[in-house]
Write a structure and sequence with these properties.
The chain is an alpha+beta fold. The protein folds into 2 domains: 116 residues, Methane Monooxygenase Hydroxylase, Chain G, domain 1; 142 residues, 2-Layer Sandwich (Beta-Lactamase). Helices cover 46% and strands 12% of the residues. α1 runs antiparallel to α2 and α4 packs parallel to α6. The longest helix is centred in the first third of the chain and has 24 residues.
Length: 331
């Protein structure tokens, strides 16, 4: 177990590979059965099983999100929350308990909440149009608290401070991977069609309008491909979106995507381009393993305060999606 938590702690500063945690936990669960822990440890064995089940389910849910797999991530989150409720009921705790004796349980509860927040981002479009928990009207103090901390509420409140035209999250499909709009089409069905052209860079989220501004997509894809790529890193079972460090290749046309400041924000990971032909500024940033975000501003953005707030928004959302604060406490 210590190895699992230590590995999770490493993800606070390194790319997360939740599938690796699942592979560590599985033999531990089998060992509990083989060595008949129930006979020797009694209730402690049951607690250990619950802890392993919760941690494994949450890591599986995180891994399923990378694949935009709505069904698997939903089922794994449900399994984790069910086991959490059983453990809390067993110990007579409430979710808000700050008992130091139950730090593991409390941390797993935070991990579950962070996973749900991430789920609300990946399936933003689907959940927004449904009658799910994330879109129903708040009817109690607890509901209003949850609603205030939801992905949608944080996104809208932060975007109010920016004069943006659009914010979109782009899902970068890995080689050999498949993508189903909203994540709810079952794999292997005839309804799946390989995405081509600009559709091969789908927007899983668009704000404030639900439909992304596809007229900008050729420009956005061009800028994105100049600055980002999927790459396998040492020790990683999946590729990950990284920012290129090589010199940018020539632009497609003299007026295409002129760079407002090539080095000003390079160290922050923020890519900023101004396209003189359409009088638009594009700002891009990596969000998660296969996610990049782009903000579109009308006109040239030279206001340093706007760019600072843009970077702050990107950083906030990226850290939440990558669970930086949640995992950092394990280091």
């Amino acid at each position: 177990m210590l190895r699992s938590y230590a590995r999770l702690g490493e993800f606070a500063s390194n790319p997360a590979d939740f599938g690796a945690i699942v592979s560590i936990i599985e033999p531990l669960k089998q060992m509990i059965v083989d060595l008949d822990f129930d006979e020797y440890l009694g209730e402690l064995s049951e607690t250990l099983k619950l802890e392993l089940d919760i941690l494994q389910s949450l890591c599986r849910a995180q891994d399923a999100l990378y694949d935009m797999d709505f069904k698997s991530s939903t089922l794994d989150m449900y399994a984790a929350r069910t086991s959490l409720a059983r453990w809390m009921d067993k110990l007579g705790l409430q979710a808000s308990s700050n008992s130091k004796e139950h730090r593991v349980l409390m941390w797993l509860s935070v991990f579950a909440s962070a996973t749900r927040w991430k789920f609300d981002c990946y399936f933003y479009r689907l959940l927004k149009s449904s009658d799910s928990l994330t879109s129903k009207s708040a009817t109690s103090i607890e509901d209003k608290h949850v609603e205030a901390l939801s992905f949608r509420s944080i996104l809208s409140s932060q975007c109010l401070n920016l004069p943006l035209s659009n914010l979109s999250f782009i899902y970068v499909i890995p080689a050999g991977g498949s993508y189903f709009k909203d994540g709810y089409t079952c794999r292997g069905r005839d309804s799946y069609e390989q995405l081509r052209g600009i559709q091969s860079f789908p927007a899983i989220l668009s704000y404030p309008e639900d439909t992304p501004p596809m007229s900008h997509w050729p420009n956005i894809i061009g800028v994105f491909q100049d600055h980002f790529e999927l790459r396998y890193l040492e020790g990683q079972s999946r590729p990950i979106l990284v920012q290129r460090t090589v010199q940018q290749r020539p632009m497609l046309g003299s007026n295409f995507a002129k760079l407002a400041s090539r080095s000003q924000l390079a160290s922050s990971g923020l890519v900023q381009f101004y396209d003189e032909a359409v009088d638009v500024t594009y700002c891009m940033h990596k969000m998660d393993r296969f996610l990049a975000a782009v903000i579109i501003y009308q006109g040239r953005v030279s206001n340093t305060d706007v760019m600072a707030r843009t970077l702050a928004l990107f950083t906030l959302l990226a850290e939440k999606l990558q669970l930086t604060d949640v995992l950092r406490v394990l280091k």
